[in-house]
Amino acid sequence: MEHILPNLAKGRAPLEPEKLIRREPLEPGTFKRMIRKMGLKVTQQRLAILESLSAGRAHVTAQEVFETVNARYPEIGFATVYRFLRKMAEQKMVTEVRMGGLPARYELTPRRHHDHLTCKLCGQIVEFESPQIEALQEQVAKEHNFRLTHHVLELYGDCARCRTG
Amino acid sequence: MEHILPNLAKGRAPLEPEKLIRREPLEPGTFKRMIRKMGLKVTQQRLAILESLSAGRAHVTAQEVFETVNARYPEIGFATVYRFLRKMAEQKMVTEVRMGGLPARYELTPRRHHDHLTCKLCGQIVEFESPQIEALQEQVAKEHNFRLTHHVLELYGDCARCRTG
DNA sequence: CCCCTAATTGACACTCGTTCTCATTTATGA
DNA sequence: TCATAAATGAGAACGAGTGTCAATTAGGGG
User: Fold this and answer.
1) How far from B71 is each of B49, B65, B75, CA to CA, in Å?
2) Chain-chain contact of A159 with B141 (C-beta, under 8 angstroms)
3) How many Å does it take to go from CA A46 to C1' C2?
4) Which domains are seen in chain B, by residue range?
5) CA-to-CA distance for B57 and A67, rounded, in angstroms?
6) Per-residue model confidence as pLDDT tens digits over B92-110
7) Which of B146, B155, B157 lies at the smallest CB-CB distance from A157?
8) Does the distance separating the beta carbons of B117 and A140 come in below 8 Å?
9) FRET label pair with A146: which of A33, A46, A76, A117, CA 20 to 30 Å apart?
């Protein structure tokens, strides 16, 4: 199992602190409620995964979640993390963000919709909201007689810090 | 190498005919010029790959390109296809589209930039252009001090025909 | 409170798209 | 024509993610 810690092993550069749209704090008991709402059993592993997702940085990879949770509960397997993340993504409880061919990143689905601006060089993710873009998307769909259900809008570029060296 | 033909083997459902923004036909000699413009050597393999890309449907996977080219030139290896597609993507000669965790799809970078509106039900892809959305994207990037290099905008919905049954 | 049972787990083998390696072949500028 | 750097093909390797299966556990019914 040599791929458990590939990211740490590669000494990936530490990321910028994220610029996040404000998120509501989670009260105790919320996690259990979330799990039950999905029709699943409440286990220590699942609670630990949710805790890790809500406490740490947003937009983490499954491996990062695994590492965090594994540090406190060394017996947890990464299959459990992947499985639970997938199940939560299906139920829209977490949102999966994929950039290029890189590992998927997850965030607890935020109350407010937003899109992402990603630095190709350092991986930093900035969230943004643009009601104007949303409106134009609706207009495009209407022109083609589509009823819009969802969209993916990811902007890629080089952030100021990476550009100036 | 049992994964050479996974898509054919799986009997993927045929897609709707695509609605494409008009593309200019390519004159003979264009391919050689394109390759030279990238600073690469002109080989039969590369010509065959470009031919396949320009002749068939847009938005093909590397495996599909390999299969097409391999049918006519059985000695070509898939590494060559992948390598060339990657190189062309780096130089923006082809555009890579990744949705979800699915294999990347490629298209010869069209002269006119466009995004995609996809029907979730029948798989139909409608291409559209929205300079207004592009402009707003630039503005978002500017606000966050990013230099925008590219973006992914995919709209999903139900087309008129599928909705009305 | 205890049991039963289906859900969940951990270990790890496996899949599959993609990239790497390296010995051989080939395009092209001199 | 030749030298040489680039390109190729074969196949191994990589890495994210999924499947399998025996062992464990949550939690509803009694």
Assistant:
1) 12, 10, 9
2) no
3) 26
4) 1-110 (1.10.10.10), 113-165 (3.30.1490.190)
5) 43
6) 999 988 876 789 999 999 8
7) B146
8) yes
9) A117
